[in-house]
Design goal:
Elements: E1 5-7, E2 12-14, H1 36-52, E3 60-64, H2 71-74, E4 83-87, H3 93-98, E5 104-108, H4 109-114, E6 119-129, E7 136-140, E8 149-152, H5 157-171, E9 176-179, E10 193-197, H6 200-203, E11 211-214, H7 215-223, E12 227-235, H8 241-256, H9 258-269, H10 273-283, E13 284-287, H11 290-305
Parallel strand pairs: 3-4, 3-5, 8-9, 8-10
Antiparallel strand pairs: 1-2, 5-12, 6-12, 6-13, 7-10, 7-11
Length: about 300
């Protein structure tokens, strides 16, 4: 073999020249993109791609009520990524928040007030009325100013406090409140008056009671202000910025589709379709306004002054 050539067993590689122009060691240039620098570059690009991928959002659970009046607020929540919705009766939602079972809940405003040192508003979504509610009513066998004992539906703490306040302010009566065990009060003559809330007021209204007081209408008559029954609240220490964005966006979609929701949900809730449309599109309100905040503040002040949050 010549002095300037070396023949490997696999391939013939010519000698090259070093930087000084003299004969140097032979070098092998692999095909582009297959050498060590290329592999290192590919590895770094792969790592960069992994690092750039956003983490999956943390699951947010919302505690909601199952009544028709909550549908515009909750109808579109399941469509958002990493969101779970848990229906419950209003009075149990505070327990869900306390137990860490949900990040935000559509809480009765009385439960917020009683726990305000550790709760805060999450969204401007709410369940409110500016007058008649259709679904928060006291049925009585005697005139309201003669009612002495009021059986109450324990599903909502707010409605119970509101009923007691209405009777104090409008009828000058401090009624005795008695828990209602459920069933049908129609033939129970020991029940002179009963407070009922929710869909059952429309679908299973009691018979044999000659007097009705709609608490939303009574509050409007007393104060000329709207009344807020529930709003979105969460724990003060929690980061609820993403929850707030989802709740507001879902509410806006629900309000825009209120008529469609009413028509789709009426049969499920046992409502006549036309009444469900009127209820969601005209009677109930779903966004906190300055007037509604003023109504809430007035309610908190009046009930506190009367000592109604103590029992």
């Amino acid at each position: 073999m010549g002095a300037g050539r070396w023949l490997s067993k696999r391939m013939k590689i010519p000698w090259g020249r070093g930087a000084n122009g003299r004969a140097g060691g032979g070098t092998y240039n692999p095909p582009a993109g297959t050498g060590r620098p290329a592999r290192e570059k590919a590895r770094k690009m792969s790592q960069s791609s992994v690092l750039a991928s956003p983490p999956a959002p943390r699951l947010i659970t919302f505690g909601v009520v199952s009544f028709l009046n909550s549908r515009p607020l909750r109808e579109y929540l399941p469509g958002y990524e990493a969101v779970a919705v848990r229906p419950e009766v209003p009075s149990r939602l505070i327990g869900m928040l306390d137990g860490g079972e949900c990040e935000a809940a559509l809480l009765p405003v009385v439960d917020y007030w009683r726990n305000r040192e550790r709760l805060r508003a999450v969204s401007d979504g709410c369940i409110a009325s500016d007058g008649e509610t259709l679904t928060v009513r006291v049925y009585s066998r005697r005139p309201p100013d003669r009612v002495e004992r009021l059986h109450v539906d324990g599903d909502s703490h707010t409605s119970v406090v509101l009923a007691r306040l209405i009777w104090l302010e409008l009828y000058d009566r401090r009624v005795e409140v008695v828990a209602w065990g459920g069933g049908t009060p129609d033939d129970d003559r020991s029940v002179d008056a009963i407070l009922l809330i929710g869909d059952k007021v429309v679908t299973r209204a009691p018979r044999g009671f000659g007097f009705e007081v709609d608490l939303g209408a009574a509050w409007k008559h007393l104060t000329d202000l709207p009344f807020v029954f529930a709003a979105w609240y969460g724990r003060k220490e929690a980061d609820l910025s993403r929850a707030a964005r989802i709740l507001n966006a879902a509410r806006d979609k629900g309000v825009s589709d209120a008529r469609g929701i009413a028509l789709r949900a009426a049969a499920e809730h046992g409502w006549p379709a036309e009444l469900a449309v009127k209820y969601l599109c005209e009677i109930m309100k779903f966004k906190l306004t300055p007037g509604m905040r003023a109504g809430m503040d007035r309610f908190f002040h009046m009930a506190e002054r009367r000592g109604l949050f103590e029992t």
